[in-house]
Amino acid sequence: MKTLRAGDHKRMPWKNGGGETVEIAVSPEDAGLAGFNWRVSMATVATDGPFSIFPGVDRTLAILNGNGMTLDIEGRAPALLTTASDPLAFPADIPVAARLQDGAITDLNVMTRRASLVHTLVRLEIDGGRTLPLTVPTCLLLCHHGALSFRQGDETGSLASGDALLMTDAVGIELKIDGEATCYLASIDAG
């Protein structure tokens, strides 16, 4: 288990140059935008426009802050995403355009290489104690709002807003968490 503090997340320009992304975690470590196997990041979207194209990649997006945006995904009906929406999965290698509802938003992105990996992203509302049974090799728990403590075996720690916990070789782990927080759990498995 590795705690990733908000202040240590890597800031970098979008692939299409239209904004900035905050990289929470990537595999392999220090991989660039063309060479990652999986990537978890946040981005602020301040204007309408196209998403970057990532060949052979699947993406799931959730709205963390703001009034939402509509995604025009090629071959699908427009999808309005808000902070109350479930995360939305779609291919990252087809044309997608974003239209903001009312001002800038911040989103959370999980991306994996389709040929070798699959992923899921779920929002968790934590109010008190909870046990998370982990069933895939790689999991990342992002504390979006609030704070929580965690325990797994002899390892303990805490997460504040923006911090994340990266767990590898996580199959069969039962992560005990306690606190009041809105979190997102990304689970990454072999495809």
Question: Keywords for this structure?
Answer:
single chain; 191 residues; mainly beta; Jelly Rolls; 2 domains; six-stranded antiparallel β-sheet; 16 strands; plasmid; RmlC_Cupin_sf; Uncharacterised_HutD/Ves
Structure overview:
With 191 residues, this protein is mostly beta strands. It folds into two domains: 7-115, Sandwich (Jelly Rolls); 118-190, Jelly Rolls, CATH 2.60.120.10. Helices cover 0% and strands 62% of the residues. It is built from no helices and 16 strands. It has strands spanning 2-4, 10-13, 20-27, 38-45, 49-50, 57-65, 69-73, 79-81, 88-91, 96-100, 105-113, 117-133, 138-152, 155-159, 164-167, 174-190. The strands form three sheets. Strands 1, 12, 13, 14, 15 and 16 form a six-stranded antiparallel beta sheet that branches. The protein has a six-stranded antiparallel beta sheet with strand order 2-3-4-11-6-9, with no helix packed on it. A four-stranded antiparallel beta sheet has the order 5-10-7-8, with no helix packed on it. The two termini are 23 Å apart.
